[in-house]
Design goal:
The complex is a heterodimer. By secondary structure, chain A is mostly helical. Chain A has helices at residues 2-36, 41-46, 58-104, 110-122, 125-138, 145-149, 156-169, 172-180, 185-196, 198-214, 217-222, 231-240, 247-269, 271-282. Chain A has one domain (65-272): MetI-like (MetI-like fold, Orthogonal Bundle), CATH 1.10.3720.10. Chain A is 79% helix and 0% strand. In chain A, helix 3 (58-104) crosses helix 10, helix 3 crosses helix 13 (247-269) and helix 10 crosses helix 14. In chain A, 43% of the residues are buried. By secondary structure, chain B is mainly alpha-helical. Chain B is built from 13 helices and two strands; from the N terminus they run H-E-E-H-H-H-H-H-H-H-H-H-H-H-H. Chain B has helices spanning 2-55, 76-83, 85-119, 124-132, 139-150, 158-163, 172-197, 201-209, 214-225, 227-242, 246-251, 264-273, 277-307, and strands at residues 57-61, 68-72. The longest helix of chain B is centred in the first third of the chain and has 54 residues, at 2-55. The radius of gyration of chain B is 27 Å and the shape is flat. The termini of chain B are far apart. Classes of the chains: A mainly alpha, B mainly alpha.
Chain lengths: 284, 308
């Protein structure tokens, strides 16, 4: 024991240093965005990248960003929040219900259904975007909110996670007791089981939220009207126009910073919840 | 006698209640599964079938000015897919990308997870969150941000950006791999880390009593036990790499070295923009199949290796 404690400090300093260097690597791009967002376009090129320039321009930049093209950027943020928020909310509810049914009831075709859903996890979302575009154009629904929102409500991975979690977290005795009390299956689910599954719900919600928030291919294929864009597509289109309008570069920088802030804050605030859900999902 | 009667009616009532309960359960199963399976069918199964159907059609024109019409083309589109040099080039590009990106990504994720699990007493939470934070950054935004960092005039490390042409044809693949690794290393670290946390303390404690060092414990006990988590991250990495689209598409805004046929998915998109939906559908069917086959093979091979 004593020898190991004596040899510890050097090893500890070494590993801590190693991790500090990588913490720097992971933080530098975000830090650079933060610094760049406070600068004028001239300072962006002339000042050092990792610290403030002499003048502080963050508020002017934010003002420009929020009013540019008739305030289209705030709309993009709202759209992203809508696609990701509604998509993840409904996606989580449906996936939880399905995973719960697959875990807690025995019925013919149960394993076949589960395997089909698992195969769905392996199907890349990008392979679906094109046929979805053709299907939506058949019914004249491309370039609408629905064309992006509805496909975002399906989360096969959520079903997988919900099934594992329901099997572990909802005891059979609780369900039996509820049945003896005359509670209907649905009522038991919505009043008792869903609470026991809360960490899984938060995890499914967060991961579906991130998946939809990051989505780029589907909106790129579906949407023409820039007022329907999510923020990823909007910033991409802006950056593709930088050669015509150099001012857009600053807008892309500030817009990128503003768009990642809510998600990072949400992850920090909710870490206690997604942490336990993630552990449950990956331990198997 | 009276008690017997009571028991018998009691059990009959119980049986009836169980029957009613079974019927209620069947209805509940439908309600629980209905919404998900409906959406899953409409937005997963139907598109896949529709894609396969589209890929079997071709456009025929009657004469030089005749109206185009769709007819059954058999495997004509697939012949074109497999004859396309661009397609094979893009496939070999993403395979190379996989070799450049994934070993570093998963290797670092494993090292971080092991260090956070055992060696570092301080700031564990800070490191965990810092490494994971980039996962909250969308691939498009991450690619835009790193794109700026690679451009010599904007880079905070101009000496590096000016001397190494990070956006030239020689290094651009590494530059994109760096963006992907930046986003996903922390996520994979968390998956491995939570598997490590599930290892019972007695196991490592026993090894320590036997005189095993940290390195030995990690190598002989911890790593073998987290192999399933590594396999899971490996499968997701295979799928993600073959589907690569967002990052290289954004890099076209910064670099001439990334063409519109850089990855298979970019070919699908470019083909559908022509528009040639039938050929694009054939490309995406082949790509989806290749993804499933490769991840399945990977699972088979690694599982045999891991579980005997």
């Amino acid at each position: 024991m004593s020898t190991s404690t004596r040899s510890r400090p050097i090893a500890t300093i070494g590993t801590t240093l190693f991790l500090v260097i990588f913490a720097g690597y992971f933080l530098v791009p975000i830090w650079w965005l933060l610094m760049a967002a406070t600068k004028t376009r001239g300072d962006l090129i002339n000042s050092t990248g990792l610290w403030f320039a002499d003048s502080f321009h963050l508020l002017d930049n934010l003002g420009d960003l929020l009013t540019r093209d008739g305030g289209v950027y705030p709309r993009w943020l709202v759209n992203s929040a809508l696609y990701a928020g509604a998509g993840a909310a409904f996606g989580t509810l449906f996936a939880t219900m399905a995973g719960y049914a697959l875990a807690k009831y025995v019925f013919p075709g149960r394993e076949a259904t589960f395997n089909l859903v698992l195969a769905g996890v392996l199907v890349p979302a990008t392979a679906l975007a094109l046929p979805l575009f053709l299907m939506f154009s058949k019914i004249g629904a491309v370039d609408t909110y629905w064309s992006v929102l509805l496909p975002s409500m399906v989360s096969p991975f959520g079903v997988y996670l919900a099934r594992i979690y329901a099997a572990a977290a909802v005891p059979e005795e609780v369900l039996e007791a509820a049945r003896l009390d005359g509670s209907s299956e649905l009522r038991t689910f919505f009043t008792v089981s869903i609470r026991l599954m809360a960490p899984a719900l938060v995890t499914i919600f967060l991961f579906q939220f991130v998946a939809v928030w990051n989505n780029f291919f589907l909106p790129l294929v579906m949407l023409q009207d820039q007022r329907l864009y999510p923020v990823t597509l909007g910033l991409y289109i802006w950056n593709s126009q930088v050669t015509q309008d150099p001012n857009l570069q600053m807008m892309v920088i500030v817009g990128s910073l503003l768009s990642i802030a809510p998600l990072i804050l949400a992850f920090l605030a909710l870490q206690r919840f997604w942490w336990s859900g993630l552990s449950a999902g990956s331990a198997r | 006698m009276a008690t017997m009667q009571a028991v018998r009616t009691g059990s009959a009532a119980g049986a009836r209640r169980r029957r009613v309960s079974k019927r209620h359960q069947r209805r509940a199963i439908l309600v629980f599964l209905g919404p998900f399976l409906t959406l899953f069918a409409v937005f997963y199964l139907v598109p896949i079938v529709y894609s396969v159907y589209q890929s079997l059609l071709k456009v025929e024109r009657v004469g030089a000015f005749g109206a185009p019409r769709e007819i059954f083309g058999g495997l004509a589109q697939y012949q074109q897919v497999f004859a396309s040099e661009d397609f094979w080039a893009s496939i070999s590009r993403v395979l190379l990308f996989f070799c450049v990106s994934i070993p570093v990504q998963l290797g670092l994720a494993l090292v971080f997870a092991l260090l956070l699990d055992s060696a570092v007493p301080k700031w564990r939470r800070f490191f965990r969150l810092t490494f994971f934070a980039p996962y909250a950054v969308p691939g498009v935004i991450a690619a835009l941000t790193w794109g700026f960092l690679y451009v010599p005039s904007l880079s905070p490390f101009p000496a590096v950006a000016e001397n190494a042409n990070l956006l030239g044809s020689g290094l651009v693949m590494f530059s994109i791999a760096n963006v992907v690794n930046w986003v996903y290393t922390g996520y994979n670290m968390l998956i491995i880390y939570s598997a490590l946390q599930a290892i019972p303390g007695e196991l490592t404690e026993a090894a320590r009593v036997d005189g095993a060092g940290q390195f030995r414990i990690a190598w002989s006990i911890k790593i073998p036990l987290v192999v399933p988590a590594l396999i899971l991250t490996g499968v997701f990495s295979i799928i993600g790499t073959l589907q690569l689209f967002n990052e290289p598409t954004v890099f076209r805004l910064f670099s001439n070295a990334v063409a519109s046929n850089y990855t298979p998915n970019m070919i699908v998109y470019a083909t559908s923009n022509i528009p040639n939906y039938h050929l694009a559908a054939a490309y995406s069917v082949v790509l989806a199949l290749a993804t499933c086959v490769l991840s399945f093979l990977f699972l088979k091979i690694t599982q045999r290796r891991a579980f005997g």
